[in-house]
């Protein structure tokens, strides 16, 4: 079993797509560790604000199998492919880390570079795994968040419930 962390984002029917993605992940992967949900402005294009979170779970899938499953979940909820890299999304699920794997694994770059670049990835990862070490920098996510230029990207927690449980509060 591998410990996996993924980021989830949506800026189209956001609450519905985030809840649906959690339902699908739980169905296929079992118990989930869920960060608070944050709202952030679109990065790289003009668009509606995103909801973002990080989810952790244990997986028996290879990285390639897991990537295929996540892409299928995105497609099941209306993800359109082939458009601009930075554009509105019904659902975006990206593998951030798989254990301490580094490099191109089954076509997936691990750890995902956005961990160090985007507050909407780093903050929720810090929330669920503060003492875990980034596989390349060997720095905890807590320390990475403390050292991050937090004024560089606007991010705020939102009220979010899933399966009748409050996941996060504004």
Characterization of this structure:
Helix content is 30%, strand content 28%. It is α+β, with helices and mostly antiparallel strands and 170 residues long. The chain has one domain: 2-Layer Sandwich (Alpha-Beta Plaits). It is globular. The mean pLDDT is 92.
Mean pLDDT: 92
What sort of overall outline do the alpha carbons produce when their principal axes are compared? globular
CATH topology: Alpha-Beta Plaits
Beta-strand fraction estimate: 25-35%
**Total of DSSP H or I helical runs spanning 4+ residues:** 5
Order of helices and strands: EHEEEHEEEHHHEEE
**Could you list the spans in which at least 5 consecutive residues all have pLDDT below 50?**
none
CATH homologous superfamily placement: 7,8-Dihydro-6-hydroxymethylpterin-pyrophosphokinase HPPK
The top level CATH class name: Alpha Beta
What structural category do the secondary elements indicate?
Answer: alpha+beta
Number of strands: 10
Task: Provide a concise account of the structure shown.
With 170 residues, the chain is of the alpha+beta class. Helix content is 30%, strand content 28%.
Q: What's the topology here?
A:
Layout lengths: L1 E9 L3 H16 L3 E2 L3 E3 L9 E10 L3 H14 L15 E7 L4 E3 L2 E3 L3 H4 L1 H10 L12 H7 L7 E3 L2 E3 L2 E4 L2
Antiparallel strand pairs: 1-4, 1-5, 2-4, 3-4, 3-8, 6-7, 9-10
Helix pairs in contact: 4-5
